[in-house]
Design brief:
By secondary structure, this protein is mainly α. The two termini are about 35 Å apart. It has helices spanning about 1-5, 15-40, 45-70, 95-105. The chain contains four helices and no strands. About 60% of the residues lie in helices and about 0% in strands.
């Protein structure tokens, strides 16, 4: 959250970043104390769980980024060389950027 507040400097961002940073520091210290004090009683699993969770989140983020890149409109289609506008039939299951690209290809659709 501290990185979020640094990027999006809205009103009172510094106060929010400090509160979130303090919370992260206290949480980290508590995790270390519990790991040291209770390591042999089962806290060792935390050393496996936290990195695995971070890896899982990174994989999900990479997937979301690839889906966003695939659905991002790069440029408008050129219709030069066509004597007539083509007829386009589009079956729509749900609204997405891909759906919008298909509809924008159809002639006569008002563009924003």
């Amino acid at each position: 959250m501290v990185m979020h507040w640094r990027k999006n400097r809205g009103p009172n961002w510094l106060k929010s970043a400090l509160v979130n940073g303090l919370g992260a520091l206290v949480t980290g210290m508590t995790t270390l104390v519990v790991l040291v004090a209770k390591f042999l009683e089962g806290a060792w699993i935390t050393l496996l769980f936290i990195p695995l969770t971070i890896c899982f989140f990174a994989i999900v983020r990479r997937h979301y980024h690839s889906v966003k890149s695939a659905h991002h409109l790069q440029s408008t289609r050129r219709r030069a060389g066509l004597s007539q506008h083509p007829i386009a039939v589009i079956a729509i299951d749900r609204w997405s950027n891909v759906t919008r690209q298909g509809i924008e290809f159809a002639p006569g659709f008002p563009r924003k």
